Amino acid sequence: MKLCRSYSDHQVAGVCGGLAENLGWDSGKLRIVWVLATIFTAFAGVVLYLALWYLMPQEPPPAPAFDPPPLQPWKKST
What residues does each domain of the chain span? Predict the structure, then answer.
């Protein structure tokens, strides 16, 4: 599995959502740990977050659901 920023689980840029998805962790807990680590490391987490935002590719959006029209529109589909 390739490391990508999350398309659906994001608060700012999807970095924590993508990391949590890749590691199999809860994204909310990872965000709390990230904020605490940022505070205790003299805001080095902000620089790392910005670098990951730039370096990690965005996850592609999900394919749209496509329901083909019925072949015989006068009949109800079952």
Answer: 15-55
Give the global pTM: 0.74
**Distance in angstroms (rounded) separating the CA atoms of residues 47 and 43:** 7
Report the C-alpha gap between 10 and 61 in whole angstroms: 13
The residue type found at 51 is: A
Place of tokens 């910005």: 50
pLDDT one-digit tens code per residue, 22-68:
999 999 999 999 999 999 999 899 999 999 999 999 988 888 887 77
In 1-63, which ranges are E strands?
none
- Torsion angle (degrees, nearest 10) of CA 35, 41, 43, 47: -100
Which residues, including other chains, have CB under 8 Å from residue 20's CB and lie 6 or more apart? Answer: 6, 9, 26, 27, 29, 30
